[in-house]
Amino acid sequence: MSFWGQMNLMDSASPLQSEMFLFHDHAMILLLGIFTFCASLGLKLMLNKLTSRTVLEAQRLETVWTIVPAILLIWLALPSLRLLYLLDEQSSDNGMILKATGHQWYWSYEVPLSNNGSFDSYMIPESDLNEGEYRLLEVDNRAVVPFGMETTVIVTSADVLHAWTLPSMGIKMDAVPGRLNSMSMFVEKPGVYYGQCSEICGANHSFMPIVVEALNLGDFCNLQF
């Protein structure tokens, strides 16, 4: 099992998710450093018997503990702003479009450039699963995209709030009735990627999974056209 699998995180399959992993490591280094410093300082204060009733202020100490946290916040904020910029950057001029519409409780997909029209994607009941398939995650119709090229995912809803979430791609978009939200997705390698609606949308909220299958461009064109 990979390192991220051991950490209960899905392996990255897109540049955006790889950047999120890097930012996660960056933030964890800061948090572990602060925790270690505060824990060792607290332990030292509890174990020693030094006291002082005459010290009322320490300008130098107050200056240090104001400047150092500010520097640490800047160290955390700069890569965070860079990641936000990458998430908002759209470059769909040369890619394809996948439209996902949330319903209670299933997803509908449409590829505007194909001749297949739209199709619904329902969760496969546990009694109908084949050996090796995942419970509560498999669907009867997968959304198919090509890997190695940009895909713009457009998400909306036909009834209530949903959220189209694909952890391996670093994508989480709200599906809002009457509104189109879009985000770029670049799949780096072929495979089948799983997600779920991450918005509490009703009684069967847990039973509308998302499955995206990435194929090479030739197989994708034969399937769609």
TrEMBL record:
Residue span, Cytochrome oxidase subunit II copper A binding domain: 93-225
Cofactor(s) it depends on: Cu cation
Reactions catalysed, as given in the entry: 4 Fe(II)-[cytochrome c] + O2 + 8 H(+)(in) = 4 Fe(III)-[cytochrome c] + 2 H2O + 4 H(+)(out)
Transmembrane segments: 20-43, 64-87
Domain of life: Eukaryota
Domain Cytochrome oxidase subunit II transmembrane region profile: 1-91
Biological process, per Gene Ontology: ATP synthesis coupled electron transport
Membrane association type: Multi-pass membrane protein
UniProt remark on cofactor binding: Binds a copper A center.
GO cellular component, as recorded: mitochondrial inner membrane
Key words of the record: Copper, Electron transport, Magnesium, Membrane, Metal-binding, Mitochondrion, Mitochondrion inner membrane, Respiratory chain, Translocase, Transmembrane, Transmembrane helix, Transport
Pfam families from the UniProt entry: COX2, COX2_TM
Entry's Gene Ontology molecular function annotations: copper ion binding; cytochrome-c oxidase activity
Role of this protein: Component of the cytochrome c oxidase, the last enzyme in the mitochondrial electron transport chain which drives oxidative phosphorylation. The respiratory chain contains 3 multisubunit complexes succinate dehydrogenase (complex II, CII), ubiquinol-cytochrome c oxidoreductase (cytochrome b-c1 complex, complex III, CIII) and cytochrome c oxidase (complex IV, CIV), that cooperate to transfer electrons derived from NADH and succinate to molecular oxygen, creating an electrochemical gradient over the inner membrane that drives transmembrane transport and the ATP synthase.
Protein family: Belongs to the cytochrome c oxidase subunit 2 family.
Protein name, per record: Cytochrome c oxidase subunit 2
Provenance organism: Phyllidiella hageni
Gene that this sequence comes from: cox2
